[in-house]
Specification:
This protein is an alpha+beta fold. It has a single domain, classed as Deoxyribonuclease I, Chain A, CATH 3.60.10. It is 23% helix and 28% strand. It is built from six helices and 17 strands. Strands 5-6-7-8-13-10-9 form a seven-stranded mixed β-sheet. The chain has a six-stranded mixed β-sheet with strand order 3-4-2-1-17-14, covered by helices on one side. A two-stranded antiparallel ribbon has the order 11-12.
Length: 340
């Protein structure tokens, strides 16, 4: 009579299936001058008003919103049916435009929530975070001011860095959303400004790592430098080689993309890859059932790409100077995939 008991035990053990695999998509998108149409006397946004140089009307604003929502509607759905759980964004004027975006009928069902702080940027553009509260639960957020060194830029205020701490499906992560100073005035002349932003981000991330060496940290943004530039390799601290990765630096999957001539924006037929998402070494821990890095990618569908003219192959931009082209953004969005 012992055999039935043994068989029952074997059957029970056999039905103890592994936990289903979870995936998460984390993205970043520079929204290219997502302003409202109202003049803000505190910042330099005059051109993005109906009477400004761009004749930025309500119709243009509505069309711009439709185009961005159309991109976000399917952003990440090839990997997860609900799309990206977290999306960092840049070049947004205020929380009004972010709320209009997440409440657009094309993506309203995703129930994105927003995190945003106003910065002292002279143009009045900031960074922000969109997140699906079904997957990500933030419980701390702050704005990190970046102080620029003298003579590095004409304006001494730039975009703040957004820092958010929360749990992605129950596991704590730290997210930094960046938009480093532009190359306006020349790459070399403006380099110290980007180095200052890189150092501000690294110093804060180091304080997190000192408290918890296994902390899961994501640094994303339009860095206005390419993956192999000094500000990212040395100042921020990164590598594209997993074998060289350690607790003090970030893994940058975009180095390989850039070295193959792949980018997220183009200028004078030269591709740049400013839109990057870097991760801490802890996303490569295979000894636990926590979130691990799987792959990175650039989201560039044919409808987002110029197919004729001098910009053929480029991201379909919204503006060409003061001329409204009716595109999406002059940057392609980027993403990483995590699983556990």
């Amino acid at each position: 009579m012992k055999w039935p008991l043994i068989i029952l035990i074997c059957i029970t053990i056999g039905w103890q299936e592994k936990k289903p695999i979870e995936v998460a998509v984390i993205g970043f998108y520079n929204l290219e001058n997502l302003y409202d149409t109202i003049d803000n006397p505190i910042v330099n946004d005059d051109e993005f008003t109906p009477k400004g140089a761009k004749h930025y009307t309500g119709d243009i604003y509505t069309n711009k919103m439709f185009k961005l929502a159309y991109v976000l509607k399917d952003f990440g759905v090839q990997i997860h049916p609900r799309g990206a759980a977290i999306i960092g964004v840049a070049e947004i004027e205020n929380d009004t435009v972010l709320n209009d975006l997440v409440n657009h009928f094309l993506i309203r069902s995703k129930k994105y929530k927003i995190i945003h702080f106003d910065s002292k940027d002279a143009r009045g553009i900031d960074v922000g975070l969109l997140y699906q509260s079904d997957y990500f639960h933030p419980y701390f957020a702050q704005s990190l001011e970046v102080t620029l060194p003298g003579k590095s830029k004409e304006a001494y205020f730039t975009r703040d860095i957004l820092y958010v701490k929360g749990k992605l499906s129950g596991e704590e992560i730290h997210v930094y959303v960046n938009h480093w100073p532009s190359r306006r005035g020349g790459e070399e002349r403006s380099a110290p400004a980007r180095a200052a932003a890189a150092k501000r981000c690294r110093d804060h991330a180091d304080s997190i790592r000192q408290a918890n060496i296994a902390a899961k940290i994501i640094v994303m943004g339009d860095l206005n430098d390419n993956p192999t530039d000094h500000s990212i390799i040395k100042t921020l601290g990164s590598t594209g080689d997993v074998k060289q990765l350690h607790a003090g630096i970030f893994f940058n999957p975009w180095i390989q993309f850039y070295q193959r001539g792949i980018g997220t924006l183009a200028n004078k037929d030269v591709w740049g890859l400013f839109d990057q998402i870097l991760i801490s070494h802890s996303f490569f821990d295979s000894t636990s059932n926590n979130w691990r890095f799987i792959k990175a990618g650039i989201y560039h569908q044919p409808f987002m790409t110029e197919n004729t003219g001098r910009y053929k192959g480029y991201p379909m931009r919204t503006w060409d100077g003061n001329h409204y082209r009716g595109g999406f953004s002059d940057h392609f969005p980027t993403f990483i995939v995590l699983k556990r």
